[in-house]
């Protein structure tokens, strides 16, 4: 790993993965289901919904589907899984409301305070496969103080397409090493590293729920490994 | 003009033109020049730089130039006008620094307070021909509390191309009449209106400097006509 002080002198922009890294999608969907449809196993429902996400993006990236926003992919997956959970009877308004649960995800407890600190010294932006409207609604509700909302929708490509990582550096007219990707997922960080970005891994052991703790052991290829955003702010002198 | 109360019930997103509407480009460039190159007529310099802006965008929109960010258009114009002001001797670092004066524009006195109020009730975003990096740097320095930075760079078209106005509604999955463009320029508002957006005209009589007060008389085709962002917040119940 690089020396934090050297990093703090080089890095100008921190680009954050969002689902799982900034917000707790699993817990938030479980809570939505407990409120809206308490008879359903919210844990299984959240996992099934999220499981459809990568295959759906892969269909877009292979050209089987035209460019599609995550809101629309979420809705396709939702319509697909509802019968499995006995919810095939949901009407259009209920489906539309439920689909917007992804706009209402709650942040991890350290996210807002950590971003507030990091924002004082760095430009903090999203780099998410979520669409701009989703990310903006989420930030407004949760109080996430982004300087700028960047999304797959801006670059017309999903992570880990290099166009997304390089796109952040280009937007800010910076060298790749002046941008750090912050994420709780090694494949995302690997994609960023391959484009010359710096990387910070954030432990989010409960991303898939308390019943499925994630292996969060450090990997030496990342520049930083932090328990949460407050530790990241400490490491980056913010 | 529409009744403000009806508007407040319909409109969800306020999209702001930036140069001249949110920030005082003329005064800011004059102040930069007074600091950096006090021998130059800052007023004439600011006007010359800005005059090159529309013709440069028109070249891109006609296809004579590929997609070009405003940072790069500003630089082309700058290189072109420097000899006229006796500044042909400026080196690369000085030119690059001066070009970023557009990232350092000061807001009008009411801009930050007005946006803070409007943000409580509406989603507030930019819709500017300025590039994302420029708008983000400007917001960070000036304290402009955007929920989201939208730019010609996102839509790959400059205003008044309909793709920009319609793009805002699409990003937020809204009907055009749920979006209001806020601008100090009638041609921009006209473009928005043709796409079905609501419009608010903001008086900025000193946009071109105290020596050239602008005609800011109301035009009936706009939904609102306000002296500044605080009056806009009053009119929209924010």
Automatic annotation (TrEMBL), chains A, B:
It is an enzyme of class 3 (hydrolase). One of its GO terms (molecular function) is (S)-2-haloacid dehalogenase activity. It holds the Pfam family Hydrolase. InterPro entries: 2-HAD (IPR006328), HAD-like_sf (IPR036412), HAD-SF_hydro_IA (IPR006439), HAD_sf (IPR023214), PGP-like_dom2 (IPR023198), S-2-haloacid_dehalogenase (IPR051540). Its EC number is 3.8.1.2. Keywords: Hydrolase. It catalyses: an (S)-2-haloacid + H2O = a (2R)-2-hydroxycarboxylate + a halide anion + H(+). It comes from the Bacteria. Belongs to the HAD-like hydrolase superfamily. S-2-haloalkanoic acid dehalogenase family. Catalyzes the hydrolytic dehalogenation of small (S)-2-haloalkanoic acids to yield the corresponding (R)-2-hydroxyalkanoic acids. PANTHER family: HALOACID DEHALOGENASE, TYPE II (AFU_ORTHOLOGUE AFUA_2G07750)-RELATED, HYDROLASE, HALOACID DELAHOGENASE-RELATED. This is (S)-2-haloacid dehalogenase. It comes from Ramlibacter cellulosilyticus.
């Amino acid at each position: 790993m690089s020396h934090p002080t050297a990093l703090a002198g080089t890095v100008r922009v921190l680009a954050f993965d969002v689902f799982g890294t900034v917000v707790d999608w699993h817990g938030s969907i479980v809570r939505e289901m407990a409120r809206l449809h308490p008879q359903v196993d919210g844990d299984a429902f959240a996992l099934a919904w999220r499981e459809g996400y990568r295959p759906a993006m892969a269909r877009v990236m292979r050209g089987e589907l035209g460019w599609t926003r995550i809101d629309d992919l979420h809705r396709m997956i939702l319509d697909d899984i509802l019968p499995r959970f006995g919810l095939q009877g949901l009407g259009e308004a209920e489906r539309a409301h439920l689909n917007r649960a992804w706009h209402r995800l709650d942040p991890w407890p350290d996210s807002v305070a950590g971003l507030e600190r990091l924002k004082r010294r760095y430009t903090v932006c999203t780099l998410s496969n979520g669409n701009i409207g989703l990310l903006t609604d989420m930030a407004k509700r949760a109080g996430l103080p982004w300087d700028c909302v960047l999304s797959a929708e801006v670059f017309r490509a999903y992570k880990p397409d290099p166009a997304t990582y390089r796109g952040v550096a280009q937007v800010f007219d910076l060298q790749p090493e002046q941008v750090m990707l912050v994420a709780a997922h090694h494949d995302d960080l690997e994609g960023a590293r391959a484009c010359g970005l710096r990387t910070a891994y954030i432990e989010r052991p409960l991303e898939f729920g308390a019943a499925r703790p994630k292996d969060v052991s450090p990997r030496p290829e990342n520049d930083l490994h932090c328990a949460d955003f407050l530790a990241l702010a400490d490491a980056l002198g913010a």
